[in-house]
Specification:
Layout lengths: L18 H23 L1 H8 L3 H23 L5 H23 L7 H32 L1
Helix pairs in contact: 1-3, 1-5, 2-3, 4-5
Length: about 140
């Protein structure tokens, strides 16, 4: 007796209300993973270049690797739960703000390169946040 495999519940790209959001989550996941790897693998040279303490760079890199895995998981859901998408937007907004505060609040001995490094990070995260918010709005508008 032969059993055919049941089709998966993944919507087709043409009918996927979260297509744009899914793409942005994947791009965010990839860029976050790359940054996490750089922070962990090059913590000492990065610390010398930016003034960022090595322990902070490693911890932040590990946090980013975990975040990248979460983003990839959410992007892979057949239907992205709106609550998870809202959480991603909120966490990214907090991270962008955290980068700004860290750059200017004198909480670590950053030099000019370190401030610029965190400002660039804040801009990248803010762009992802805005695009994810747009994707969330599109998805919720399409699903009612």
């Amino acid at each position: 007796m032969s059993h055919a495999l049941a089709p998966t519940a993944v919507p087709s790209p043409a009918t996927d209300a979260a297509r744009f959001l899914r793409l942005v989550l994947r791009v965010d996941s990839a860029s976050t993973a790359v940054m996490g790897l750089v922070l962990v693998a090059a913590a000492a040279p990065l610390g010398s270049l930016t003034g960022m303490p090595v322990a902070f760079a490693v911890a932040f890199g590990i946090f980013q690797l975990g975040g990248a895995a979460c983003l990839a998981l959410i992007a892979g859901y057949p239907v992205i739960p709106a609550a998870l998408a809202r959480t991603v937007v909120a966490v990214n907004a907090v991270c962008a703000t955290g980068c700004l505060v860290t750059a200017f609040a004198d909480v670590m001995p950053l030099n000019g390169t370190g401030v610029v490094f965190l400002l660039i990070g804040a801009v990248i995260v803010a762009v992802h946040t805005g695009l994810q918010y747009t994707g969330l709005r599109r998805m919720t508008a399409a699903t009612g």
